[in-house]
Every structure is written in structure tokens, then in C-alpha cells.
Write a structure and sequence with these properties.
By secondary structure, the protein is mainly beta. The protein has helices at residues 44-50, 102-105; strands at residues 7-17, 20-30, 40-43, 56-61, 67-72, 74-78, 81-85. β1 (7-17) and β2 form a beta hairpin. The protein starts with 6 loop residues before the first strand and ends with a helix.
Length: 106
């Protein structure tokens, strides 16, 4: 079940850092109404810092152009570091599901 959602995540960009797939940035939208057209890029570090305080969920557009809620982001701590994942697995690397890459929507 979803908690109150504070922010939506609609796109992401990744980089390979020493063999680990990590988030570079994500397009974040405050949950302030029906419009999700305007967002700003947040860094991985900004999202990790706020994951303990705010609830982030993915959001994507369906075939009709309507916004559809996705999975909740979770901060996962492992012996190899802290990662952001939507699947809850304690694996090395960030994983935000099947949202588009930021580069694809710009």
C-alpha cells in the first residue's frame, strides 16, 4: 500500500560507476495536483537525503497520455553502499523500473 506521496519521479539518467549502475539524476515533480508537466532534475544525493523524510513514487504516461502511478522508491542500505530501488531487492546498483531516460524526453 502506498503512503501519502510527496514527489513523483517521471524520468531518470544513469551512469556506470566502476561497474555499478547508479542514478545520475531524476526528474522530480511535487505532488501538488493533477499536472505533472513541470519537474526539476534532482541528483542522486538529493533524493537519498530526502528518502527518509518524503515518499517518492514513479509516474508514467499510459498509451492514452494519462498519468499512471508506479512503484515507490526505497533507500536500500547494503554492505556495498546505499542504493535507490523500486523492487526492494538488496542488490548493488540503483533501479527505478521502466521509466524513460531524461535524455529521451528532453
Amino acid at each position: 500500500m502506498f503512503e501519502k506521496i510527496d514527489y513523483w519521479v517521471s524520468a531518470a539518467s544513469y551512469s556506470d560507476r566502476n561497474g555499478t549502475w547508479l542514478l545520475e539524476a531524476a526528474l522530480i515533480h511535487p505532488n501538488i495536483g493533477e499536472s505533472h508537466d513541470y519537474g526539476e532534475e534532482w541528483t542522486r544525493e538529493e533524493i537519498i537525503d530526502k528518502c527518509d523524510v518524503f515518499v517518492f513514487c514513479l509516474i508514467t504516461k499510459d498509451a492514452k497520455g494519462n498519468w499512471k502511478r508506479g512503484e515507490q522508491l526505497r533507500k536500500i542500505e547494503t554492505d556495498k553502499g546505499v542504493f535507490i530501488r523500486v523492487d526492494g531487492l538488496e542488490k548493488t546498483g540503483d533501479y527505478l523500473g521502466d521509466i524513460p531516460f531524461i535524455e529521451e524526453i528532453e
